[in-house]
Amino acid sequence: MKNTIRKEREKEIISGLYELSRLEGLENVSIAKIGKHLGMPPSLVMHYFPSKRLLILGLIDHILHQYQLIYRPIISKMEKHPRISPELLVDRLFSREWNLLFDDGVFFSCYAFIFRDAAIKREYKNLHVKLRSTLKTLLDKDEVLVNGDTGLLAERIFVVIEGAYYYLSMMDDPKTYDQKLKIFKDQVYELIYSEINRLQYPAQSE
């Protein structure tokens, strides 16, 4: 019971940190501001998170949880049929829903701390490793792709995705955004279909 209450309180505080960071910028958020925003004394916030550093580590875990939600429709579909739908996968990986699940500004503000704090750097690295691992797990469920190097394929896909989101975040014109988005999506399609063709028709790949 106590653990459940603690987890709920920690979740509430991290959500408060995220909401304030989205509005004011992570660098401008203090424990006092979080307490005021949530209607609780700063001492209570510090009881669960004695420092802003620990709050940021909790925020990274929150980022991971939110981003993992993007895979849910793919997982549901693959429970019925053991093949990846490249179209669904690419649409989910490049979905604007990522922006709804977690604000880009908060993500990159949080990311900046990796250059100043080794623990935050480790947690951010762990976040990216887990996202790749989840994608690899999905690729392993595909009856064709499982015969190849799904870890390498997941890595290549994420190299495109991470570069794409960094670049797309600077696009203000919707038309330009869509044009660039198509380029990145086509790159991932090429990676997936090339691997499928290589595994299904090995003689043609030699």
Describe the 3D structure.
With 206 residues, the protein is an all-alpha fold. The protein has helices at 2-24, 31-38, 42-48, 52-68, 72-78, 86-93, 97-101, 104-111, 118-140, 150-168, 174-200, 202-205. Helix 1 packs across helix 4 (52-68) and helix 6 (86-93) packs antiparallel against helix 11 (174-200). The radius of gyration is 20 Å and the shape is elongated.
Summed up:
This protein is an all-alpha fold. It has 12 helices and no strands. Helix 1 (2-24) packs across helix 2 and helix 9 (118-140) crosses helix 10 (150-168).
As residue ranges, the low-confidence spans are none
| Order of helical and strand elements | HHHHHHHHHHHH
> Describe the biggest sheet?
none
User: Helical stretch count?
Assistant: 12
Q: Keywords for this structure?
A:
12 helices, mainly alpha, elongated, 206 residues, single chain
Outline the fold blueprint.
Blueprint: H1 2-24, H2 31-38, H3 42-48, H4 52-68, H5 72-78, H6 86-93, H7 97-101, H8 104-111, H9 118-140, H10 150-168, H11 174-200, H12 202-205
